[in-house]
Amino acid sequence: MENLTFIHQYVPARSADAPTLLLLHGTGGNEHDLLDLGRILSPQAALLSPRGQVLEHGMPRFFRRLAEGVFDQDDLRRRSQDLATFLAAASAAYQFDPRRIIAVGYSNGANIAASLLLLHPGVLAGAVLFHAMVPIVPDRMPALQQVPVFIGAGRSDTLITPQQTQQLVDLLHGAGADVTLHWEPGGHAIGRGEVQAATDWLQPRSIPRAGH
């Protein structure tokens, strides 16, 4: 299938009106890692789970970094474009609504999801970001009015400080996004409490179609 350049898993939706969850793993993960999480978050949704194409010491990632928390901005822009292109091709191949894609990302996956929001507004209808930080500050702020974003963070996270989490919240707020921030007492791992909070946030929500 043309432009389906990511190794990936696709699970069809269980109902016609369900959204598609774009599942984006953390460093060292793969296309299988977040399938169970996606099913918990939205039992009826289609699941699209690509594997990151960058290897760091043999571990898949979605973009290069120069050091811990220091991202290769040129590579991030290129990989974000590649992911946006993949989403368009996947929606055509699997016949799901490209305007109803909700990213669910963890760590590195959450960071590229945030990059998609900032660099390619209209690609995502919403996002669930577990343990994310500001990946990039765009030259021109996007218009993200009405775009819902859930951010789960750990107060004892040694990789992402509360200040870095707040910087991401402020950046997305500044672009007009509707941001919900949930704190857990733990560290960088996804906590049970934030999964439940994200499920509660997502289930009753009617996600607007991207670009509408």
Overall description:
The chain has 212 residues and is of the alpha/beta class. The protein has one domain (8-202): Rossmann fold, CATH 3.40.50.1820. The chain has five helices and eleven strands, in the order E-E-H-E-E-E-E-E-H-E-H-E-E-H-E-H. It has helices spanning 35-41, 73-94, 108-119, 162-174, 192-202, and strands at residues 8-11, 20-24, 46-50, 54-56, 59-61, 65-67, 70-71, 101-106, 126-130, 148-154, 178-184. Strands 1-3-2-8-9-10-11 form a seven-stranded mixed β-sheet, sandwiched between helices. Helix 3 (108-119) links the parallel strand 8 and strand 9. It is globular and about 40 Å long. It starts with 7 loop residues before the first strand and ends in a 10-residue tail after the last helix. The relative contact order is 0.15. The model has no long low-confidence stretch (mean pLDDT 94).
Chart the SSEs and their pairings.
Layout: E1 8-11, E2 20-24, H1 35-41, E3 46-50, E4 54-56, E5 59-61, E6 65-67, E7 70-71, H2 73-94, E8 101-106, H3 108-119, E9 126-130, E10 148-154, H4 162-174, E11 178-184, H5 192-202
Parallel strand pairs: 2-3, 2-8, 8-9, 9-10, 10-11
Antiparallel strand pairs: 1-3, 4-5, 6-7
In short:
Helices cover 31% and strands 24% of the residues.
Largest sheet: 7 strands, mixed
| SSE pattern, N- to C-terminal | EEHEEEEEHEHEEHEH
CATH class descriptor: Alpha Beta
Strand order of the largest sheet: 1-3-2-8-9-10-11
Spatial extent as radius of gyration: 15 Å
With helices defined by DSSP (H or I, 4 residues minimum), what is the helix count? Answer: 5
**CATH H-tier superfamily:** Alpha/Beta hydrolase fold, catalytic domain
Q: Got a strand count? A: 11
Using the alpha-carbon principal axes, give the shape.
globular
Label the structural class: alpha/beta
Considering DSSP H and I runs of 4 or more, what fraction of the residues is helical? Answer: 25-40%
